[in-house]
Fold this sequence. Notes:
The complex is a heterodimer of chains A (407) and B (335). Chain A is 50% helix and 10% strand. By secondary structure, chain A is α+β, with helices and mostly antiparallel strands. In chain A, the strands form four sheets. A five-stranded mixed β-sheet of chain A has the order 1-2-8-5-3, with helices on one face. A three-stranded antiparallel β-sheet of chain A has the order 4-12-9. In chain A, strand 6 (304-306) and strand 7 form a beta hairpin. In chain A, helix 6 runs parallel beside helix 15 (359-376) and helix 7 crosses helix 8 (155-169). The longest helix of chain A has 31 residues, at 232-262. The radius of gyration of chain A is 21 Å and the shape is globular. Chain B is an alpha/beta fold. Helix content of chain B is 19%, strand content 32%. Chain B has helices at residues 20-26, 64-68, 171-175, 216-229, 250-259, 282-289, 304-316; strands spanning 2-7, 10-15, 44-49, 52-53, 71-73, 78-79, 83-86, 98-111, 114-121, 132-136, 143-147, 157-163, 184-191, 207-212, 235-241, 263-269, 278-279, 297-301, 324-326. A six-stranded antiparallel β-sheet of chain B has the order 11-10-13-8-9-12. A six-stranded parallel β-sheet of chain B has the order 17-16-15-14-18-19, with helices on both faces. A five-stranded mixed β-sheet of chain B has the order 2-1-7-3-5. In chain B, a hairpin with a 2-residue loop joins strand 1 and strand 2. The A-B interface holds A 96, 100-102, 272-275, 279-280, 283, 342-345, 349, 351-352, 355-356, 359-360, 363, 374-379, 405-407 and B 25, 28, 30, 32-37, 39-42, 44, 60-61, 63, 66, 292, 294, 311, 314-316, 318-322, 324.
Amino acid sequence: MTTTERPDLAWLNDVTMTELERNPYRAYERLRAEAPLAYVPVLGSYVASTAEVCREVATSPDFEAVITPAGGRTFGHPAIIGVNGDIHADLRSMVEPALQPVEVDRWIDDLVRPIARRYLERFENDGQAELVAQYCEPVSVRSLGDLLGLQDVESDKLREWFAKLSRSFTNAAVDENGEFANPEGFAEGDQAKAEIRAIVDPLIDRWIEHPDDSAISHWLHDGMPPGQTRDREYIYPTIYVYLLGAMQEPGHGMASTLVGLFSRPEQLEEVVDDPALIPRAISEGLRWTSPIWSATARISTKPVTIAGVDLPEGTPVMLSYGSANHDTGQYEAPSTYDLHRPPLPHLAFGAGNHACAGIYFANHVMRIALEELFEAIPNLERDTREGVEFWGWGFRGPTSLHVTWEV
Amino acid sequence: MAFAVSVGGRRVECAADQTLLDACLRAGVWMPNSCNQGTCGTCKLTVLSGEVDHGASPLDTLTEEERGAGLALACQARPVADVTVGGAPEGRTTHPLRDLTATVLEVSDIARDTRRVLLGLAEPLAFEAGQYVELVVPGSGARRQYSLANTADEDKVLELHVRRVPGGVATDGWLFAGLAAGDTVDATGPFGDFHLPPEAEDDGGPMALIGGGTGLAPLEGIARTALRRHPDRQVLLYHGVRGAADLYDLDRLGELGEEHPNFEFVPVLSDEPDPAYRGGFPTDAFVEDVGSARGWSGWLCGPPPMVEAGVKAFKRRRMAPRHIHREKFTPADAM
């Protein structure tokens, strides 16, 4: 390694998971300035922290996808986010038909709008609410749950599952031997998966015999010879990918966008008055606090030099998109939410052939949810008696968002 | 080599090897985008004129059928000629703009510093109640905008309400000076999007209209049109003025209330109290009167501070913002 002229990175030895989960921005700001590609001991991995290096690694022909160790421990193999070649192509071809824009446009409004209305009706006359638990997360999980074919699974159960899987997936700390520092942290994810299997296995049994238009039914049947279905063990890791990220992140995205707008009351008012601004507000919300902050990784397929660092073949690199989206080389005052900043592309949905497959779907879920929220409660205000706390390193968003309005 | 890309009234220069999205974003023109690699479809747009090279646009994201229909991915498409792009066409027609020569039929003083001007047209003018016309001030070339107080079927005699602006070119210099019946007036119209939705889309929901000064004019046309469509709908019309001397059309609006029991006209005086009328601001009167405006539409025409206060009042009573309409031109008497 050509580390001789690099800054002293001994401070990285003191970085803890707790610190990163509470506020990763401080450590990553220093990483971007001192070492945009650096080995972070607590993560047991190299980390890419700037927009340029994240994009380079994500799109480089000399890297392929790999799931993070804690992610792999949680999801198993073959999860769509951690496989390559034919298996990846097959899994993408399995999930993508339902997520194509032409397809999504066909039903997204009829799917999401009634769900948003239903949750709003429960509290719109109360004059106060906690939007993360009462609106953002329920609308997100119900929309995707109904799409997948999980209509009979309660929204609160889906929320419980993504929270448990999420904490397990990001239980990333390793000790000096590279072993998981908190192996007991995977227990709740294992428990959630057991529950998921108990509920989804009978559904799969039914879909094998009686296919319907639900996404998981299509995953089983599409592209298979007549009379055959994909093996459930083959698709479960990707079901878990959905039940974690795809369930949790639109809720994070909505809530972060709202917190950002509350920090700029005049911009909130603009967006409420002109719903056509909602997609832009969401885009800035995802840049400002990227829901998938640091949850994906790549591995080198041959010796490469990235950002001046020589990496041998087989070196994993974590992609810190949440940090890349605060890169001062790209964004002025990146920690400020600003609807009107120059609308440059961000990396919240990743890059390369593993970029998020659900971009279009997720953006529209968030858009419709915020449209309905502002339509029903145009006089929404943040309840300043309660603070807003963000949490998470792998996945990040506000833990709660208390609001009030006059009724 | 560069081409011009026109989008939403803006023109952006785009090099032959540059994507439409890149050119727009660099020029500060927002368009939805996410993956920037052709796979998510967020940046799909319609090429209205000109031609693009779809580049590496994947067939999965942009089908042959969509290409045939003129769609393109902004993040992949490069111009091969000047192009105009847009989202889905609105599909709604507007009344054609016309140059008019009108004859003054009547000029009458109806309130303090306020005149009603009736203009006769040789040919009927197609417009929607609430729209406005521009008058050419003789000799100065200046143009001034005045809302029509008419309903759409009153298409041969245009009714304008004019408030005198001390020293104003159009008012002190003309409409309050030499203007007389028989004069000829050059005008252009109709303009503006301050009008009811088409009748088929008008569900007869309750309405609140707030006008300041001669901002009452378009609201009279809108209220009468709304009540003709749905005679029993709830319509609250607030007229905010400084004092009782500024009020007008009390009889006409009183009669409207007799014909339509759910119509109410509420004058509100801000500066010169009078026991016969409510005091304060019309936007505050609305907040006092209406507990919830869920499902209502709102209509605002008047000085900008009144319009801003009206938007806040409507939202405070939870009227959906997309149902809040405001006349965007600044009435001549608003300054």
